[in-house]
Amino acid sequence: MDFEIPEDLKMVQSLVRDFVHDQLKPLERDVLGRVAGLKDARAYLPPETEDRLIKMATEIGLWGLGVPEDLGGMGLSTLGNCLAEEEIAQTIVPFTFGDVTPILFECNAEQTERYFRPHFQRQSQAYIALLEPQDRTGFPNMRTTAVKANGDFVISGRKMSYSRPGGDYFGIVFAATSGEAEGPTCFLVDKGTPGFTVTGGEEAAGWRTQIQAPLSLAFADCRVPVQNILGQTGQAFHLGKKWLPARRLVRGARCLGVAQRLLEEARAQAESWESYGQHISKRPSIESALADIAVSIHACRLVVYEAAWKADGNTNIKREAAMVKLFATQMIRTVADRVSHIFNGPPYIQGLPMERLCSDALAANATDLALELQSSIIASDIMKGLKV
What we know:
about 15% strand, Butyryl-Coa Dehydrogenase, subunit A, domain 1, Butyryl-CoA Dehydrogenase, subunit A, domain 2, 10 helices, about 400 residues, alpha+beta, Butyryl-CoA Dehydrogenase, subunit A, domain 3, four-stranded mixed β-sheet, globular, single chain, four-stranded antiparallel β-sheet
């Protein structure tokens, strides 16, 4: 068995690590806020700073790491994307190397030029509108409908989106359709389309800005032409399906990066904090907590890397992806718990990287319902007699 990372991927990993260390981590204090009360905290980087970082990332070949080459990206392998995500997750600065939802990889040639490329080049924002106010899962009982009328579709209903607000935008809207192609259909809805309105998303001041309120997308007899259908009618939930397992691995790698940074913060705390004239790092309970964190990270890294290696070998990784999602979520919860012990209380302290790292990691990870689904996938394979 060969556990060595290929040299070309080591180079990418090193480039991302240096970029995070030299360009992003120095911005953390500005993102978290400097003034008393942290009223100047930010949810996003200033446009001029983000433009500068994008230019730098492009010049060194890091922009669009996860985007296929035929769409103008780097087309990095699954393992390469995991390595990059693990590094960038070790900072709280909100920056990605041109990450794009795989749903948009399904654009046809005309849609690619009209929607994908402007979004990839950060000229427009894509508002993913799957969730509805009445149902946070987005799947059952979808109330937003699209009815065919005179060759177009008329959309009615309300959606929520946790996408980043932008001056220019378009909606990636899931709506229930009926008839010969019964099932949800995905529509690309332009800003300014009659009957399509967006409210909310204003960036509030203060250190709680990272907890973003959802955008509210309303559709009142919004007429959308058939050429704005993404994929096929009634097949919305099949969009990006082939990319989903690999994306779960990348999410797992992000948990690894967050956990690694938490371990570094916990180590620094254990080294610097004294109790009764002795550094707490000498206490057996602290040593045990640090060891638990390190073992959890190592085990999760092996699970993620092996699954990524299989994905790059064109192996079906449905079960491995479920394992990664389940294990990485459990791992980050364990790490946050152990870090709380080392800090002698919840590490959710205003103005520290710890607060946002823990909040982002736990909030962005799977709900209990989603984890039950991953457990079901794994158990189903076991019952089929497949080797674990």
